[in-house]
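Intended use. Records like the one below are meant for learning the mapping from a protein sequence to its folded structure. Do not use them to infer anything beyond what is encoded.
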Amino acid sequence: MLFNGRNRVEVIEDGNKKKVIKELVGTNEEITRRIDNIKKWNDLLSLYLYKTNQNYEFENQKITCDYVEGENLQSLLFNNEINFSPDLIISITKMLEGIHNLKVGEKEDVVVDNLFSSIPLDLFEISSGGQIELLRLIHNDIDIQNYIKENDRRITKNKCFVHGDVRLDQFIVSDDGLAIIDFEEFGEGIPELDLANFWGSIIFSNLLKVFSLEVDKRDNILSLNNKILIEGSRALDESFQWIKLSYNSYHNNRNLDIKLIHTRMCSFIIGRLYSRSFLSAKLSPIDLAIAGITKELLVNFDELKGDLYGND
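Structure written out for the chain above:
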């Protein structure tokens, strides 16, 4: 049995197919919420046109469903076994849009904060040394704080269904194509939230690969810094290209709030850095570099929106 952070996961043979059993971990209230979310998703499965887990069964704190064969996209990208491509970006965008287009009932409004919502700024007392260092960087950065104050607005939009926890490791790649999994955070929201996580995942994945490059011991500090700057610029340019393609591939893109997506996208990246710093005494140089780049992305929205979204 594997432990993936908040679930105990076991894959079993059931006749000629595999099943995955998840034993949910957390408070009773949290477990009940996540199970209810999956039950909502299960009720809509017949309407969804893309590959995902099927045949859910529920028993106490356990969820059983069909196992989706393949490798998660995040690992494949990091290990250079696959690269971002137009087909991949468009496929993921359409899978998310397919969730957003599922009928949600009456077209009611939902109110969303345009803030760094995924950054737990009030959790100093339970954070590791590395996490506290990251939180202090955000608290003490005048540009970030000014951006948050200037964009402290609430947005009212028609609600839709959302995946709720989009990350690249939630996509499974196999010979049969692409699948999306893990609907524990499924529910009602707005499409900007899923797209922000997807686009943030693209940037985070590309930057992490750059800053994890093996160092050639023959390089001096200056040549190494130049190499990282060149590769980092290339990674951002490539990320912008894929984000713009995803935006243009999203059918109803003219109704998207780009500034909200941009804010939440940067928030997602910082949230990933916070998670990576769990149990670390100090913020790693890699995470510190990515945090610095994310800050520049956040506060320079007006200058970057054309490159990112084709929205001059």
